[in-house]
Amino acid sequence: MSEAKEQSAYARAGVDIDAATDAVDRMKSHIKKTLTPGVLTGVGSFGGMFALSALGTLQDPVLVSSIDGVGTKLKIAFATNRHDTIGRDLVNHCINDILVQGARPLFFLDYFGTGKLQPHVAEAVVKGLTDGCQAAGCALIGGETAEMPGLYGDGEYDLAGSIVGIVERAKIVDGSQVAPGDVLIGLASDGLHTNGYSLARQALLHDGQLPLETPIPELGGETLADVLLAPHRCYAPAVLSYLETNRVHAMAHITGGGFLDNIPRVLPTGVGVHIDRSAWTVPPIFGLIEKLGGVSNYEMHRVFNMGIGYVLVVPADDADTAIAYFENAGEKAVKLGVAIEGDGVELG
């Protein structure tokens, strides 16, 4: 009779190297699908390498980077045991951040930390990451999977990632050309994206106020879980295509801080914006949060995207062309408002 395999001292301490190996093996097939021609290393290298020469001739290339997390949207994934979209949230959020300056993504790196590694959960998360990377032509070039017993609650994990993109210096979108009279074009979001979930959970789920998996009439019969887990939309395909032949003076990703904090970040001194709140229909999830949470409408616009996930500032005579372009590209686009003399955001 064969002798039973003895548990290692490290496993008795809470770290299972065999589970880590299993998790990496599960991830490999997904990661390989994202490797673009510039990637020089395979899965498991100590450092990821990317050859800029694979991009062709660049006159004056500028690298653009960003790093972010998913926030407490993770709590919804834990509660529903749905882990296959949360990685896409992270990738798309980071892509949109560097897109603001006109950059296209080159490669992405992730960090996944948990108390007890469950290979099937790690695989689902990484598949979400690779789905997002593949859709945007971005390589998942490296990452870290860390098992740290005692640091996270049972069944919980943290997820963060960093991205590097590239843009020609002459094509950087920096907001310096924005002037009064320019028009703001808003592109619709797919729900909350990855911001405001602490407030949303307090308003909707406090003391079991609303069920996660039961259809809710105010949400058109959708479940709260489906609405809250809708993936963060990626605007890169449509926006990068538009930038090739059209003028854009500034762009803003509407994340934490909503309209009130994000749009001013890309405006020059002496220029503000007027937002016409009648220009679009706010999705019902935001009204439900406002009502049940007792949140002021002003604060709603400072915390949430309110149904607009991305904003472009274009010359007034290009506004109709921009609307038509983005509609044809599959985005819901509206004339959100105008640039004005002053500062900050005026909600009308």
Sheet with the most strands, sense and barrel status? 6 strands, mixed
How much β-strand is present in the residues?
15-25%
Question: What is the CATH fold-level name of the largest domain?
Answer: Phosphoribosyl-aminoimidazole Synthetase, Chain A, domain 2
- CATH architecture descriptor of the largest domain: Alpha-Beta Complex
- Order of H and E elements: HHEHHEHEEEHHHEHEHHEHEE
Number of helices: 12
Number of strands: 10
First-residue to last-residue Cα separation: 79 Å
Number of domains: 2
Question: If you average the pLDDT, what whole number results?
Answer: 94
Q: For the CA atoms, what is the radius of gyration?
A: 22 Å
Structural class: alpha+beta
Considering the protein shown, what is the CATH homologous superfamily of the largest domain? PurM-like C-terminal domain
Which strand order do you get reading across the main beta sheet? 6-8-5-9-7-10
The coarse silhouette is: globular
CATH class of the largest domain: Alpha Beta
EC number: 6.3.3.1
Subcellular location: Cytoplasm
InterPro entries: PurM-like_C_dom, PurM-like_C_sf, PurM-like_N, PurM-like_N_sf, PurM_cligase
Protein name: Phosphoribosylformylglycinamidine cyclo-ligase
Feature tags:
single chain, 348 residues, alpha+beta, 60s Ribosomal Protein L30, Chain: A, Phosphoribosyl-aminoimidazole Synthetase, Chain A, domain 2, 2 domains, 4-stranded mixed sheet, 12 helices, 10 strands, 33% helix
